[in-house]
Structure formats: C-alpha cells, structure tokens
# Entry
Amino acid sequence: MKMIKSVNEFVVRFANVNGTGSASANGLFAKAMFKLGLPVSPKNIFPSNIQGMPTFYEVRVSEKGYMGRRGDLADIVVAMNGQSIVGDIQNVMPGGYLVYDNTRKLDPALHRDDITMIGIPITEICLREYQDPKQRMLFKNVIYIGALAALIDLEFQILVDLISKQFKGKEKLIAPNIHALEMGYQNVKSLVECPIGIRVRAAKNPNTEAILVDGNAAAALGAVYGGATVCGWYPITPSTSVIENFGTYCDRLRIDPVDGTKNFAIMQAEDELSAIGIAIGGAWNGCRSFTSTSGPGISLMSEFLGLAYFAEIPIVLINIQRAGPSTGMPTRTQQSDVLSCAYASHGDTKQVLLFPSSPAECFEMGADAFDFAERLQTPVIMMSDLNLGMNDHYSRPFTWSKKRPYDRGKVLNAEQLESIEKFGRYLDVDGDGICYRTIPGAHPTKGAYFTRGTSRDAFAIYTEKGEEYVKNMDRLTRKFKTAENIISRPEITKSKTKARHAIVYYGTTDEAMSETVDLLAKAGVVVDLLRIRAFPFHSDIDQFIGDYEQVFVVDQNRDAQMKTLLVNELAIAPNDLHPICNYDGLPITAEFIAQKVMALQADSAPGSKKSKASMGEMA
# Structure
C-alpha cells in the first residue's frame, strides 16, 4: 500500500457528535498549526440542532497558501462518531489515515486495504480515568488531539502552551487538560510507529503578521471603528455573533473613562422588523446605526429597507448569508441573497452592496459602510456568509489610522442653515443625486422636514403628482450612478501571459481562486480574474468582461444570481457569461471550479473535441 507522505500540506477531518465540546478541541489543533507559522483554514460543518447529530471540523494546512476547502476526501480522518463511521471511512483519501476509537471492535466489513487504520481505545481510557460522565465526554476530545500530535510529529509543548493560554485565570483546568493530551500522545506511541507519513514542521518563511480570526468578530470590530453607536438586532444564525462581539468590543471601547457611562445602545427587538426600525430611528437622529441578520431576516426587513432607500436614511445592514429558501439550512453557507438584497423592497429599488472576502475586508468594509451610507444617504448592505462569518480564517492584520475622519456627507449645521433662504431636503443642488440633509435639532427654526415613505416633492411636501415622483426617482438613479465611483472598486488579477478566458467571482470564493488558477494552468488553461467587491458595478467590470472570449461567473447559489445581476445592470447578453454554480451548502472548492471551467470550455469550443485533461492530470 502506498501511503500519503507530505509535510505541511494535508487535510484533517474530525468527525464528532454535536454538543460534546469537540469544536474547542479541534480548534486547539488549528491554532497549533497557526503557531507553527503555517497557513491554516478550519471549517466547522455543524448541524442546526443543538445536540446529538454528526458534526465535522476540517482543518486544511497548506504552506503553499491554499486556503479553500479541498473536498470530501481528507488525508487524515479522526472518526469519533459511531453514527457516521461508515461515511467517515469512505472519506479517507487512498493512502491516507483513519484514527478511530477501537474500544468497540470495528466491523471487519468496514476495513479498507488502501488506508492505514489506527485504533485507539479512547472510551476505555476515559472510563478508567474519569468518574464524571461530563469529564469523559469532554476529555475524550483532548485525548485524540494528543494522539494526533504524536502521529504527525507536532511538538507537544505547543499544545501545552495553548492550553495554558486558553485556561488562563482558570488554572485548575490546565493540568487535567495537559494530562489528557499526554494520555493520547503516549498511548498512540505505544500502539503504532510515530510519526506517520504526514507530518508538520515550523514554516520556513512564516508570516509573522498574520492573524487567525472569524469574519463576524472582524465585522463587529469594523462597526466599532466605523463609529457605530446604535444597534437594533434580533438573533438569527449565523449572524448572532456579530452583535455579541460588537457588545464585547463596545464594553471595552465605548465606555466613558471618567464616569463609566456607556456611549452606545444595543437593543434586542422582538423581531427583525423592529430591529431594522431601531437602526433607522437611530440613523434619522444622527447616530451611526446598524443591524445584522441573515436571509430570512432580509425578507422581513425588505419594506423598511425600502423606506430607508426612499427617505434616504443612512443605515448599515450586515448580512451573513446562509442556505435558503425559507429557513433553509441555517448552518450551511451560500451566497443566496444577492438579488434579494440588490433589489430589496418593492418597486424600483436598488441597494448598495459590499462583498468582503476575508476577515480583514469584513473589518475594513464594516467601517467603510458607515462612511458610504452617510455620504450616499442610503442603506449599505455588507454581504458576508456563514463560511466567512463563523469560521476562523488566516488573515492579514487589521489596520486603522487614528487620523482618519468620519465622512458624514452633506450634513448642514446651524451656521450653514442660516445662509439658506429655503431648505429643500430633496433638492439636487450639485447634480450628483445626493441632497443635503439635516439632523433633528440642528437649528431652532430652519432645516426641519417631514420624513415619509410616500411621494413628495423636493421640499419633502406630500404630493402624488406624477412629474414630481419621476423627478425624485430619476434623482435616485443619478445617486446610484454616483455611487459607482465612491464604493469599493473591483480587484483584477492578470496572468503573466495573455489569457483568452476570465473568471468573475466575489466573496468567499476568493479563498479557492489561487489554487483554481494553478490547477487550470497545469491543464494548459490560462485565466485572468476579477473579484467583484461592490454593487453598483464599476465601469471596470463591463470593460473587463468585454476583453475575453469566455467569461465564467462563479456563484455559490443555484440560480447564478451574480450572473443575473451583471446581465441586468450591464446589458450583457446572457450567453456571453458562463455560470459556475455551487449550492450544496459547503464552501466551494478549487477542484469544482476548475472542472466546470474545463467542461464549459470544451463544450463551447466550436467543432473541437472535448478536452482530455482530467482533474487527475491537472493535480
């Protein structure tokens, strides 16, 4: 049998039971890889129920920097769940390794001759060592981490240091956890020859500035730095931790150092409608306000989004997308809300969208969104997803300039209002579609107007005259056009040789793209890349698409929503864009994208035979 031999390039898949505390132990392993200076990509794939169902945690380690999910087959599977053991064994790469609890004998029919199967009596160890059932459940996870460390030659002291840091302030827990690690470490060494063919070493050229952080925490910190002080929210997976983190950061950074006053307000509402209503009320009063939700919440918030768009109230909405429709798969990722957010609310409505691809961009866009919202006087929706929001990511550090001012846009103060004979809230003075606004109380007699969601003229006076409505809607169209050159521009990556093919993508698809380019290059296909970072679309996107024979648009949804948006907004012929859609609820892989590109390329080549290149040849 040919065993996999690899240093610093592998995938470990942990198979556990949900609700047993395994995620903490599995995260410990990911952090150990990070401490070695290795790029690491953990993915927590868990069910939406609270306890008892199979849950999986994948850790990809890649010194080459490939951070996308690799696929269903792993080099090492740590199988600790009897419910999923059959599938877990099948998910080991040929030549790979299965680590399992052999306290209960494994059915001989499940044996595979093409993998190394390593049985450790973990349950037996726990029964012997611990009397408390809860301790048996929790320390089982720590034991297999110790065993895995021995198998891949991970320096034991790294785990000891991480445990000590994790339980700082709870010193009574440090020694028992280290003891559990030691039991796993020593036990597996007595059973098999260690290390196996897969092993780890400290990175040769570590990125000492990299951080390991999840996107929801980054977005929350971005909101703090962006000046947010009012938040209305209603809990919903996978967005809840955005607000939880925002509260934590505010408790540290928004407390008056003199009298201890809280300079922020977080209000949990009875539903999503009230949550966005709170944010709109705060923004109307001059606060930087936001809310956070997921797909079902977007549906409920749509009418209020229309009000904020039409009344031109600057709010921020952080959307952590999940699989739908209806309540869908709450703990699975998708880019499922592109169209529902772009055209949120009824009638002729267009919303500004931002598409972050990393925690660093969640932080940056989380702050920029408030500047954009106030400058454009409109809602801004940041389109993250579950993969980005709830998983830790290997990220560049966050940066912030203390000299950076907040861009509050066209806000008139008392002195400016004094010089104006008659204030018109919806007058387009500068011709860019963006009007001047006031904050309640700015002047005792001037600058007041009635905010409404019904039709009005340029002075905010109610009217149902068609010509006044048309003027207002045309001005909103001009404002949306102005936004193209204000919000984030696309990121274009050109190959060294001239490419005839291009891939357009957005969001977390980015983590799979460097590997996709390499896979395609091995098959002789050169591609250029464009990553969409915002909507409305910058003119660079239209120009880029027109420069290539074939353009592939990657969506993590069934209906090619980004392709549809590009066709609608840029008047591109639908057949000029080739959709690549992944919608199984798992993060998209480079192999999937490369296979689809190859197949579409072969199918569209007039009179040519389909490419004989297989993914095996490409790898």
Notes: The chain has four domains: 6-199, 213-395, 410-476, 491-618. The longest helix spans residues 133-151. The radius of gyration is 27 Å. Confidence is low (pLDDT under 50) at residues 609-619.
